[in-house]
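Undecaprenyl-diphosphatase, Acinetobacter faecalis. Tokens?
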Amino acid sequence: MDLLLLLKAAIMGIVEGITEFLPISSTGHLILAAELMNFWTKEKSDVFVIAIQIGAIAAVIYEYWARLWGAATGLITGEEKGRRLGLGLIFSSIPIMLVGLTFGQTVKALLFNDVAVAIGLIVGGFIIIWIEKNPPIVRAKEVEDLTFKDAIWIGLIQVLSLIPGTSRSGATIIGAMFLGVSRKAATEFSFFLGIPVIIGAGLLDLYQSYDVFQTNQDWIVLGVGLLVSFISALVLIRVLVAYVAKRDFMVFAWYRIFSGLLILLFVFTGWKLW
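Tokens:
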């Protein structure tokens, strides 16, 4: 058993758990972390990056089980708040699933690279700054207050997150805020919306690339990444909900811009940190 590889997998799990629900692009950070640590072969690393997001989303299911169960049962019983949330999540998930199934592998082949990540980070950072400086009037304070129209629009905006560096959380949270959803509700809806999208994408990628993991060690490495991402994401979710209740996302916007510019600097100068 390669203990160094397991340690790298655990570090990747921590990166995923911390970044998945922040508006800073988990996929972008995982791609960069994998390159920094020379983590695995590129083929295995690309599958790992997508698959361990399932661990982070499992933390959402654990933390919000009661509300998610209410949404699921509401679709059957017709209970108003649960039904609205359940249908909203379904409507929001359709666009990215259709586009992902059609173009997902093409996006991975063309845009899983440093330059694409950097551009996505920078553009997203400026969008966050703009929305924070021009906040719309809040009309939906809780997740259950979102209309079906809101859900569809957020789902369309989420499609942008297929581009590495854009950030699924960033796109859905900022998109929802633009539509008049409160910061807390936008953040929680982004949590929930990740469930069908991330689990679907992760399982699909594992199915399509099943032969990439050929040994027991390969699956153990993946298991370590999943477990660590679950634990770190659970901690992050609780911290982030408390954070957004009192603060804005400006710090993440500047972080994105600085990180993107730094990546471009190293790419175009050929400098190395390692």
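Residues 75 and 208 are 31 Å apart (CA to CA).
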